[in-house]
Amino acid sequence: MKIEKMELRDWNYTKATFNVVTQDEITIYNFRIVDTGKGPFIGLPQEKGSDGEYYNRVGMARELKDALTEIALNKYKEMGGDTGGDSGNSAGPF
């Protein structure tokens, strides 16, 4: 799998967005790198339900998510993103 179109963001806790291309050339859009102040992690693509809650649109095994996290955070760091534990941002939806 590979990362495509990573873009650095400053949207509350969202620090970057990117797409994932699988080995079978399937592109999954709208992954996020999220940092709530406890260190960055990968946010899966989500959709807002009629009840106002957000639900993941993609499911994956823990091992796959861990591998994707490592790949995405390395690329994020290469692009100049901060992977430190404290973003210093106290505002946001969570």
Describe the 3D structure.
The termini are far apart. Residues 85-94 have low confidence and may be disordered. This protein has a single domain (2-78), classed as Arylsulfatase, C-terminal domain. The strands form 2 sheets. A 4-stranded antiparallel sheet has the order 1-2-3-4, covered by helices on one side. Strands 5-6 form a two-stranded antiparallel sheet. A hairpin with a 4-residue loop joins strand 3 (27-35) and strand 4. By secondary structure, the protein is of the alpha+beta class. It is built from 1 helix and 6 strands, in the order ββββββα.
Task: Give me some keywords for this one.
18% helix, two-stranded antiparallel ribbon, 1 helix, 94 residues, alpha+beta, Arylsulfatase, C-terminal domain
Helix/strand order, N-terminal first: EEEEEEH
Mean pLDDT: 87
Total number of helical segments? 1
Cα gyration radius (Å): 13 Å
Which spans of ≥5 residues are poorly predicted at pLDDT below 50?
85-94
CATH class: Alpha Beta
| Proportion of strand residues | 35-45%
What is the 3D shape? globular
Q: What is the CATH superfamily label?
A: Stage V sporulation protein G
Straight-line distance between termini: 29 Å
Q: Briefly note the CATH topology name.
A: Arylsulfatase, C-terminal domain
**Helicity, in percent?**
10-25%
Structure at a glance:
The chain is α+β, with helices and mostly antiparallel strands and 94 residues long.
